[in-house]
C-alpha cells in the first residue's frame, strides 16, 4: 500500500475532517452502516466532554501518512519476511474499506503462517466500531486460543 486513493485524501487528508467526510471513509453507504456511523459520531464528537484524549495534531497525521507511503513501497523481499512470523496474528478489515483495501488484508494474512483473517461485512475503515461487539468477541476468542 503506497498512499491512499484520491477520494480518501479528499475526505480525510486535511486538518479538519467534517463528520460527513469521516463517514465516507469509515462507513459504507448502507443504512445499517450509516446508522452505526452516526451513533459513533455522536459519541466521538458530542457525548463525551470530560477526560478526552488530546486531539491528534496535523503534524502527527502527516507523519503517519508519510510512514504509510514510506513503508508501503513495493518490496517483495520485505513482504517475504512476513512468513518468518511464527506467532499467531489476527488480521481484521472491513469488506469495503477505501483506506486500506481488503486485498491487502488477504495478502498480509496469506503471508503470515499463523494468521487468522476476519473480514467484516458491509463495513469500511470503521469496521471495529461498527461491529464492536463482534470484533471484541473475535479478539477475545483469538487471544484465548493463542
The CATH fourth-level homologous superfamily: Alpha/Beta hydrolase fold, catalytic domain
- How many distinct helices? 8
Please, what is the average pLDDT? Answer: 89
| Global structural class | mainly alpha
CATH class: Alpha Beta
Structure, described:
The protein is mainly alpha-helical and 146 residues long. The protein has one domain: Alpha/Beta hydrolase fold, catalytic domain (Rossmann fold, 3-Layer(aba) Sandwich). Helices cover 55% and strands 8% of the residues. It has eight helices and two strands, in the order αααααβαβαα. The protein has helices spanning 6-12, 19-26, 31-47, 58-71, 76-81, 102-111, 127-130, 132-145; strands spanning 89-94, 115-120. It has a two-stranded parallel ribbon. α1 packs antiparallel against α2. The longest helix has 17 residues, at 31-47. The radius of gyration is 17 Å and the shape is globular. The mean pLDDT is 89.
Amino acid at each position: 500500500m503506497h498512499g491512499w486513493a484520491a477520494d480518501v485524501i479528499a475526505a480525510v487528508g486535511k486538518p479538519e475532517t467534517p463528520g460527513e467526510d469521516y463517514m465516507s471513509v469509515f462507513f459504507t453507504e448502507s443504512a445499517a452502516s450509516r446508522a452505526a456511523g452516526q451513533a459513533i459520531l455522536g459519541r466521538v464528537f458530542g457525548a463525551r466532554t470530560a477526560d478526552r484524549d488530546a486531539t491528534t495534531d496535523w503534524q502527527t497525521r502527516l507523519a503517519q501518512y508519510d510512514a504509510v507511503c514510506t513503508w508501503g513501497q513495493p518490496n517483495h523481499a520485505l513482504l517475504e519476511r512476513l512468513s518468518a512470523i511464527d506467532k499467531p496474528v489476527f488480521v481484521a478489515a472491513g469488506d469495503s474499506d477505501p483506506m486500506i483495501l481488503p486485498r491487502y488484508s488477504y495478502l498480509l494474512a496469506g503471508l503470515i503462517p499463523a494468521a487468522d483473517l476476519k473480514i467484516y461485512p458491509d463495513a469500511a475503515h470503521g469496521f471495529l466500531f461498527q461491529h464492536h461487539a463482534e470484533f471484541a468477541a473475535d479478539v477475545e476468542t483469538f487471544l484465548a486460543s493463542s
